């Protein structure tokens, strides 16, 4: 990715649905009529904040959702998406304030849709989750109590997930997944993005420390 190839790859796999197309998806796949839709920030998937019209069939349910369209690369591994969805359901049942999964008209958690993109057929897995209102932690003042609460919830989450079982759980183990904390050395491929400044030096030092102090002991850590 040092030549920017990874960014190009991300651009090729990230969905580019318009708001009109996304609204049509919500109606055709999930049977809900959209009153308002707007894009949400995302990395390599595409997310929309969806408000639905109330009907006699939806008077009791939520009226705000997140439509999540997985990138075409992740959509090739439906087992991974399935496990993620079941984890969300599992955590909600355990009392965590997670979203609820909305089932498709065919009573599935996801739907694989295919679109014609520049004479090429691309497939995307689509999910609909209830919208959770709130503010990103980066936007609120940090206090020791807040940090304590974050740590407490993270620990509770960790302990709860020890009880989660699924026949396709192994799909979560992706060796070269950049967001896996044991893959810190992979960040070296992205150092070019920092240019030549003090921040780059710091990152290089941290990566080297990780190689020297952590990689040599990884086999002794609980994963």
Shape: globular
Mean pLDDT: 89
* Portion in helices: 25-40%
Low-confidence stretches: 1-8
What fraction of residues sit in β-strands? Answer: 15-25%
Helices and strands, in order, run as HHEEEHEEEHH
* Radius of gyration using CA atoms only: 20 Å
Could you tell me the number of beta strands? 6
Number of helices: 5
Which sheet architecture does the biggest sheet show?
A: 6 strands, antiparallel
Output the structural class.
Answer: alpha+beta
Alpha-carbon distance between the two ends:
27 Å
Provide an overview of this structure.
With 223 residues, the protein is α+β, with helices and mostly antiparallel strands. It is 32% helix and 18% strand. Strand 1 and strand 2 (46-52) form a beta hairpin. The longest helix has 18 residues, at 144-161. It is globular and about 60 Å long. Mean pLDDT is 89; it is low at 1-8. Its main location: cytoplasm. It comes from Phocoena sinus (Vaquita).
In short:
The protein is of the alpha+beta class and 223 residues long. The chain is 32% helix and 18% strand. The protein is built from five helices and six strands.
How would the blueprint of this fold be written?
Layout: H1 5-13, H2 19-30, E1 34-40, E2 46-52, E3 64-69, H3 78-93, E4 101-102, E5 111-117, E6 120-130, H4 144-161, H5 198-214
Antiparallel strand pairs: 1-2, 2-3, 3-6, 4-6, 5-6
């Amino acid at each position: 990715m040092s030549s920017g190839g990874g960014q190009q790859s991300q651009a090729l796999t990230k969905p580019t649905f318009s708001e009109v197309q996304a609204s049509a998806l919500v109606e055709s796949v999930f049977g809900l009529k959209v009153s308002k839709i707007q894009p949400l920030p995302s990395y390599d998937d595409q997310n929309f904040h969806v408000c639905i019209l109330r009907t006699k069939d939806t008077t009791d349910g939520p009226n705000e959702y997140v439509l999540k369209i997985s990138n075409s690369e992740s959509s090739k591994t439906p087992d991974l998406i399935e496990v993620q969805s079941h984890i969300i359901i599992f955590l909600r049942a355990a009392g965590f304030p997670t979203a609820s999964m909305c089932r498709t008209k065919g009573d599935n958690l996801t739907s694989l849709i295919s679109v014609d993109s520049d004479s090429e057929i691309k497939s995307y897995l689509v999910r609909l989750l209830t919208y959770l209102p709130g503010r990103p932690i980066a936007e609120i003042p940090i206090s020791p109590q807040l940090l304590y609460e974050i740590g407490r919830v993270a620990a509770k989450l960790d302990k709860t997930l020890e009880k989660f079982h699924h026949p396709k759980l192994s799909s979560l183990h992706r060796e070269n997944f950049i967001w896996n904390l044991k893959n810190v050395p992979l960040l070296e491929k992205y150092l070019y993005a920092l240019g030549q400044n003090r921040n780059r030096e710091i990152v290089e030092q941290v990566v080297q420390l990780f190689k020297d102090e952590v990689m040599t002991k990884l086999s002794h850590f609980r994963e």
